[in-house]
């Protein structure tokens, strides 16, 4: 077998020795096994995140991606089959650590708060960025090794992860972060959105939401700024409040997108974070 130095030299020279291909194939299979472990672990962990979410929008986002993740597990099994390898997994320490981070968010935030939703989105986007990096690398290796079918299947999962990351950014920017910020003001007229007495401040032009409001009607959340959350009716989501406009909901998942967001960029007025 060629030395590691020879394999690296052949790789960067554009050469493709049999030994080098075998080394890369072993790396490809190993990374594939790590992703197989990761996706199955997420299928187990994501329902906890959905159950812990405060708003229907965030809950639906996790539920929607849970179904995608189940499909990605099946897709990975097809990839193993396409290269003639039995589906198997190996421990992925990275995903285990990210799952622990999500559990920490749940245990350290108040139930029914928008701060919890903001934290859950951060945790979810950490996972998405890990998966984007992993699938992107697998796609490059599959193309290099001539695994055409595997590359096509990996590309499908990669695009799903990118889309999910983008939707989470839009969801955070549309209302979650603003309301989490309002919670942090400790305004005596504000209570967590799982309660029914929301903002009442006539001097600032805000009106009281009646006690008949429920968690299913997101107009009950007050942000202290220009937002009122939309409530989904007839497959459309309406927003009211100065500076807000009607927006179309994210297809299937109940997202309420704001401006076009970049990956991992949903911090209010900032360029980094959720």
UniProtKB/TrEMBL annotation:
Record Pfam families: DUF892
InterPro entries documented for this protein = DUF892_YciF-like, Ferritin-like, Ferritin-like_SF, YciF
Q: Out of the domains of life, which is the source?
A: Bacteria
| Record field: compositional bias (Polar residues) | 205-217, 226-244, 262-274
Q: Where is this region: Disordered?
A: 179-274
Q: Which PANTHER family match?
A: PROTEIN YCIF
Q: What is this protein called?
A: Ferritin-like domain-containing protein
Species the sequence originates in: Fibrella aquatilis
Lineage of the native species? Bacteria, Pseudomonadati, Bacteroidota, Cytophagia, Cytophagales
């Amino acid at each position: 077998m060629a030395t590691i130095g020879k394999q690296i030299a052949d790789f960067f020279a554009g050469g493709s020795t049999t030994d080098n291909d075998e080394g890369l194939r072993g790396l490809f299979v190993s990374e594939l096994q790590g992703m197989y472990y990761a996706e199955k672990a997420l299928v187990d962990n994501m329902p906890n995140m959905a159950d812990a979410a405060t708003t229907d929008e965030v809950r639906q986002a996790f539920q929607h991606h849970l179904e995608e993740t189940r499909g990605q597990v099946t897709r990975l099994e097809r990839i193993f089959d396409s290269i003639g390898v039995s589906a198997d997994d190996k421990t992925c320490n990275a995903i285990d650590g990210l799952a622990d981070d999500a559990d920490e968010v749940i245990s350290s935030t108040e139930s029914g708060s928008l701060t919890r939703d903001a934290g859950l989105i951060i945790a979810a986007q950490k996972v998405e960025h890990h998966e984007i990096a992993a699938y992107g690398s697998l796609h490059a290796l599959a193309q290099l090794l001539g695994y055409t079918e595997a590359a096509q299947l990996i590309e499908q999962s990669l695009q799903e992860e990118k889309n999910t990351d983008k939707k989470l950014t839009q969801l955070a920017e549309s209302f979650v972060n603003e309301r989490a910020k309002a919670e942090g003001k400790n305004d005596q007229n504000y209570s967590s959105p799982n309660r029914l007495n929301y903002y009442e401040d006539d001097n600032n032009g805000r009106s009281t939401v009646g006690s008949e409001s429920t968690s299913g009607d997101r107009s009950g959340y007050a942000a202290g700024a220009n937002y009122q959350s939309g409530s989904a009716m007839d497959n459309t989501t309406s927003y009211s409040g100065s500076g807000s406009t009607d927006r179309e909901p994210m297809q299937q998942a109940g997202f309420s997108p704001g401006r076009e967001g970049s990956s991992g960029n949903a911090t209010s007025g900032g360029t980094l974070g959720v």
